[in-house]
Each structure stands twice: as C-alpha cells, then as structure tokens.
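In the present case, backbone shapes were mapped to integers, as reproduced here:
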Amino acid sequence: YGGLSDSKLRVAITTTATIGFLLFGYDQGVMSGIITGERFNDEFPDTKGNDSYHATMQGTVTSVYELGCFAGALAALMWGERLGRCKSIIIGAVIMILGTLIQITAFRGKHELAQFIIGRIVTGLGNGANTSTIPVWQAECSKSHNRGLLICIEAGMIAVGTVIAYWLDFGMSFVNDSSQWRFPIAFQIVFAILLIAGANIFPESPRWLLNHGREEEAVRVLAALNGTSTDDEETNREKRVILESIQIVSGAEKNSGFKDVFSNGKGQHLRRMLIGASSQMFQQLGGCNAVIYYCPVLFEESLKLSRRMSLILGGVNATMYAMSTLISFFAIERKGRRFLFLAGSFGQALAMFITMICLVVGARAAKGAAVGLFLYIIVFGCTWLELPWLYPAELSPLRTRTRANALSTSTNWIFNFLIVQITPTMIANIGWATYLVFGVMNLMFIPFIYFFYPETAGRSLEEIDVLFGKAYTENKSIVKVAKETPHMSPLAVEAATQALE
C-alpha cells in the first residue's frame, strides 16, 4: 500500500485521517474572521450589523453548515457500511469541493445569500460523512496501546486547521476586494484533494473487510499493518479474534439493520450508542463552538475591542488551542478517558464563570474576560476536543459501529447547529449571562460521566466487547466491571469471547 507496511503504513493512515480533521477544523474556523468582514458584508448585506436581526442572520449563515454536516452523518448512517470506509471518505471530500465552489461563485444581485447558504450546506454534507467515517477507519486500523494517541492526533488537527483559518483570515483582512473572503473559503480544496489521494492509496479497514466476507483481502491488510506475512500466527490470531467478536454480536453487520443499534441484550448496543452520543452532545453544550466560531466576534461585541485587535486575539487564541492539544497526546493513555472527561468539564465551567464575572464587573475587567476565554480553549483543546471523536468509535461493537458512530456524529452536528445559531443572538440579548449558561452546563456533565462512562484506555476493541458482555451477564455496572477487570492478552480475549458465546 504505497510501498509502506507496519508502523510506516499506520503513520500514513493516521496522516490521511489528520488531513480529514484538519479540513474539518479549517472549515470550522474560516467563517470566524469572515462573517464580520467588510467585503463579505458588502457582498451579503443581511450579515452587516450587530443588532438582533443581523446577529441572527450571521448565526444562520454560519450554522447552516452544521445542518449539512448532520445530513452527511445521516447519509453515512444509511450508506456508509455498504460503501466502506475509504470510499465514503473519497465521496465526502468530493462533495466538500463541490460545496466550496458553490460558495465562492456567489455574487451580489444574483440570489447571493441563497447560493452561499446552499454551498455551506453542501460542504457540510461532505464533512458530516467524513467525520462519521474517519474515526472508525482510524480506530479499526490502530493497535490498542496507541489507538487513543493516534485519534487524539487526528482530533488535534481540528485545532491546527482552525489556526490556519484564523491567521489566513487575518492576513486576507488587509486585502480590499472580494478575495478577502473568497480565497480563505477556496483554500480548503487543497486539503480535500490530499484527503482523496490518501484514501485512494491506503487500505480499507481489515475489520470492515472481515465483516463483509472478504477474508483473504483482510488478512493481507492485517499482515501489512503488522509488518508480517499472511501466514503469520499472530496475524491469523488477530483475524480469528475479530471474527469471533463479529459472531458474539449475532453475525455480520451487512445483515443487520438500524434496529440493531437500538437493541440491548449481551451486546448492549443501545447503551453503548447512547454513551457515545452523549459525549458528542456534551461537547457542544459545553460551549466550544460558541468560542471557536465566534471568538473574534466575542472579543468585538463582548469586550468592545477593534476588529483588527479582535482578529489578532482570535488568532492567538486559536494558536493556544492547537498547542494545548499536545497535552492530550501524553494524557489520553496515561490518565485515561474518564479523568480527562471529568477534569475538562470542571475546567471549562471555571473558565466560563471567570469570563462571566469579569463581564459583570465591566470594562475595567475586560482583560480578565479574555483570560477566561483563553483558559476555556486551552482546557477544551486538551480534553473535550479529542475525546468525543475517540470514545464512540471505541465503545460500539463491529456489528453496529458504523451506524452508532454516525448517530453519535449526527448528535454532535445537531447540537453544534443549535449552539452556533443561538450564540450571536444570546450575546446580543443577554450578554454576560451567555457564559453563565455554558458554565452551568459543564458542571451538569460531571455526575453523568462519573456514573456511566467506563474506562477504555489500553484495551482492544474486542476486549471492550467482552467487558460489556460481562457487565450484562453479571448484572453489574459497566464502570465497575471496567475498573475491576485487568487488561487482557489476545489469547485471554479469545477465550473470554468464546466463554460469552
């Protein structure tokens, strides 16, 4: 596969996956510096102004992208398993290119706002399909001991994409024609082309291949990923463990329907899907995209800074955001998922309360409010940014993984739409209370995480299947079972899987 095998092939797959999430982050950040730009507002007059109507229009133009992403995630839910991981990624990237072209060819006087909104939706459609598929492809091609790290790197690239978008927006703000906004939007095509190239060259998920009866091809992929031959005992044992995992959850996914995602029993499909989807919902309700999408707007409207200074601070904030993701690379396996979920929720709540208190005090405490926003994005970048993209893909069994992950991603996008739509209106109407709402929401996540989120660090995907099966048969809390059960070798997983049958 491109002349690569073993660790080099895994790195290449991770690189392709990171490009997909860099594209995701870029598209998240690019509107932040454009939406209040002079040339953009001239082209789309309905977005010019800071009263309630224009704030709502700014929210609508930005948030319709999330509706497209929601539809794309649903499309992955319906057709992703049939198409496979790589083909789904390629189709998603092509759709994103089409949507980008629709956006940048909008001109005033020619139904410009409608065309731009349609382009945003189409771009979102492709991104929604990709964000549902890429984490699954990555998880299924990773080894258990570094799966968390690799997906953290992948999710961390969301922040890198946002940084590129923020600083490109700032640089283009000095240009006094429509390329001020057209070029930053068009630039994402570069990332989409790289993503298409990678998904064409590198292999399909071996677990997907086994799930669809393509055993010979799956063994070749496993051998390439492990740097061994197709008759190697370890490679063939891994194949057997995957096949047994498929069997214990009642057969291959290609013969399953949507109803299987909502079933419980030994496989615990519904519980696993709901835990994964809740992590995506909590990520959005915590206020991350209120800060990411509107950071310069928040500096401009809440802190009353100039547009130029707001763009600079937005770029610095995004840079800190990207740098903070490095912490998660070391903590995700050493500290585990539960610790980062809990610490992130508390830290984000604290940051929102700091921002709120400083805004209540008034202009003399504006620097403190800026510190609160910086603290929030740092905490988010090393905890809640990565976890919801890793956790749902880990939790769900192979039979329902594509559909469950698509439902989780759909949850992200619909709540993302909600937050991005209402944030400008909240800032315009209730001011500092916006940050109080987000602070309280973060505190509310903590008990749910403590009682319902099992630790998955260092465990293989098939081992996680065993834990849920054990919790069901012993009628115990999955959190307790995960805490009490020592990590298992491949042979132990194989034996435990057979025992649960």
